[in-house]
Every structure is written in structure tokens, then in C-alpha cells.
Amino acid sequence: MRRLILASTSTARAAILEGAGVTFEAIVPGVDEGEIKARLVGEGHGPLVVARTLAARKAVVVSQRYNALVAGADQTLECEGALIDKAASAEEARQSLLRLRGRGHFLHCAVALAEAGEVVWSAHETAQMFMRDFSEAFLADYLAREGERLLTTVGGYRLEGEGAQLFERIEGDYFAILGLPLLPLLGALRARGALAT
Fold first, then answer.
1. Domain 4-191 of CATH type 1.10.620.20
2. Residue of 74, 85, 133, 141 marked catalytic
3. pTM above 0.85, yes or no
């Protein structure tokens, strides 16, 4: 099997690949995501383009340093056309969740494979998320229980945990919601000799 590197520090993405039985190494991509995101938004690009660009950039940068097939991924949240970032504090997470409460939003998740500094494959999935109109008391308890974990995800929720209680309905791929479009990626890895056929 070919060597596979995941250009990510995301524990959720690593857990998805591990759960699927994929052998890989995780390496920090060393990409200034904030600068790239700010430039793209400044140029008028939407959240999906941001996710696709960041996924590709992470894969390309790491593939320039290692002789391996490198997977990069990124996820963005779009609410009423605006990009919502990860919260930097518990209060920011609270404000973000209040903004999303009782309405729908989109999660865009992109993945790219790169070799020797070139993207050789990419894909993306978009899920539509419908958050319920939860009470202030529920939100306070949720924030207290989740703590710092809220700062690791866009939107301030983890669907694989108590964040599931925030929603009344979702439409889209579960793995992409968690941060990695797994099934298309597995197909691409098989096609490139990184997984058994």
C-alpha cells in the first residue's frame, strides 16, 4: 500500500479514517488558514470556495515535503450567505449558536489529494443543517458541559456528541458533517493504490 498522510491536526478526521481501517500518518500542514480565508473572502469568494482552497493548500504544502499521497480537508459553515468561523471563546460560541438557533445553515466539507505539490483529486459535500429553537436554559447547560470542545468546531457543535441535541433535521452526508467526505475519499485512495481493492 502507498504511504498516506493526513495533513490535519483534527482529531475528528483522524478518528473517521481510523474507524474505517485506513493506515495513515497525521502531520501538521503549517498553512496560515486565517490569511488565506481573509484573502478569499476579500476577493468575494463564498464559503465553499474557501473550504476547497484550504483543503487543496494543506494537501499541496505537505506533499511538497514528503514522498506520499497527502489528504487535506477543510470545512466551512455558511449561514445566510455569511461565513462563520470557529469561536475563539465560550462567549463567541454562545453568540454563534444563538445566531444559528431556529434556522438552517450549510456545512461545506472539502477534501483533496496531492502528490509532489500537485492536486490529483478533490471532492466536496454540502450538508444542510436545521437547528431547533432551543431554550436559553438548554444553551447554558450545553455550553457548560461542552466547554473548550466548542472551540474546535465551526458552529460550536459536535454532531457526534451532545451537539446532536441542537438539531431537528439534517440533510447530507454524516461523515462530511463530522469533517471528512469519507466515501468519495476511500474510492480515490483505492484508485491510487493506498487501499486494497
1. no
2. 74
3. yes
